[in-house]
Amino acid sequence: MKRFKTVHYTIHSDKIKDTRGARFAVLADLHGMEFGPDNKRLLEAIDKYRPDGVLIAGDMIVRTDSASIETAIVLLKRFAAQYPVYYALGNHEYKLYRSNPEENEMARDYQEYEKELKAAGIHIVHNESCELQVGKNRITIYGLEIPLIYYKKPFSPKLHTEEVRELLGEPLKDSLNILLAHSPKYGNAYFDWGADLILSGHYHGGIVRLGRRKGLLSPQLQLFPMFCCGDFHRENQHMLVSAGAGEHTIPVRIHNPRELLIVDIKPCAAKEFV
Predict the structure, then answer these.
(1) First vs last Cα of the chain: how many Å apart?
(2) How many CB atoms lie within 10 A of CB 101?
(3) Biggest alpha carbon distance in the chain?
(4) 46-95 pLDDT per residue, tens
(5) SS3 99
(6) β-pairing verdict for 85-87 and 176-181
(7) If pLDDT is split at 50, 70 and 90, which confidence band does 274 have?
(8) At what angle are helices 66-80 and 40-49 packed, to 10 degrees?
């Protein structure tokens, strides 16, 4: 039986205006994986925490597997029936999104996938943002899509903060800004851009996990990649990198359980009580 681990993070921000704060479930890199019929166990785990929304950090599908699209549709529509859902693309979705549907059957399937998700009320954020009000808290969710050259193996160019700014604009000063950015490789650019909370995946925990924040290998075949998994912080900014809920090309995990993240965002004044 396939298993996953629920990992709970609590972060603090002075942009949170009430003691209730906000809670999100975060899912990345499902890649068509199923935990029970129609992902029943994954749904039950999320329902237990009653989040204010579900945030998808990309790669719910495998770009060469049409069955993974159907698996994702069923799960995401179940999420959307109960929670606001915000979805940023990973490299698997983005490759299909940018492909010509007249030449690629999977690209046609992907077009229908997005249509069906949008019809269910899911927010797919293509280098744009959506605002969400949770109690007194104004939250803005950005979805970053970077060109495929930034996923090139084994070497890819450096992503500069100016390029993130060109794609997304400036973060709002009076809002808690959450950035869904699939690849954690460019974490420094995301911090410099000004995100309060960055949510990533892509690295699958480094295949072999070597500690809370360290793994062996990235999908771009880099050893001991930076921002591999776990939590990273720069003063009042935070980055959480999921080890992912599935796998595909290298179906191996050693000391590296699949993950569902639950993230609580609390006001700074509550920090001393946690």
Answers:
(1) 35
(2) 14
(3) 57
(4) 999 999 999 999 999 999 999 999 999 999 999 999 999 999 999 999 99
(5) coil
(6) unpaired
(7) very low
(8) 30
- Interhelix angle 66-80/105-119, rounded to 10 degrees, is 10
Question: CA 125 to CA 208: how far, in whole Å?
Answer: 31
Nearest CA to 182 among 71, 47, 56?
A: 56
CATH number at residue 156: 3.60.21.10
Coil vs helix vs strand at 193: helix
Q: In which band, very low, low, confident or very high, does the pLDDT at 273 lie, cut at 50, 70 and 90?
A: very low
Percent of the chain residues topping a pLDDT of 90: 91
pLDDT tens, residue by residue, 183-219: 999 999 999 999 999 999 999 999 999 999 999 999 8
Domain of residue 174, residue span = 5-273
For the beta carbon of residue 189, count every other beta carbon within 10 angstroms: 20
pLDDT of 5 reads 97
Burial 6-44 (b: 16+ CB within 10 A, else e): ebebebbbebbeeeebbbbbbbbbbbbbbbeeebebbbe
Give the integer Cα–Cα distance in Å for 247 and 31: 6
According to DSSP, the residues that pair with 174 across neighbouring strands are none
With helix as H, strand as E and coil as C, how does 236-263 read? CEEEEECCCCCCCCCCCCECCCCEEEEE
Q: Are 108 and 101 in contact (CB under 8 A)?
A: yes
Q: How many structural domains compose the chain?
A: 1
Between the CA of residue 244 and those of 13, 14, 57, 162, what are the distances in Å?
25, 29, 9, 28
Average pLDDT, the chain: 95
CA 232 – CA 187 distance, rounded (Å): 9
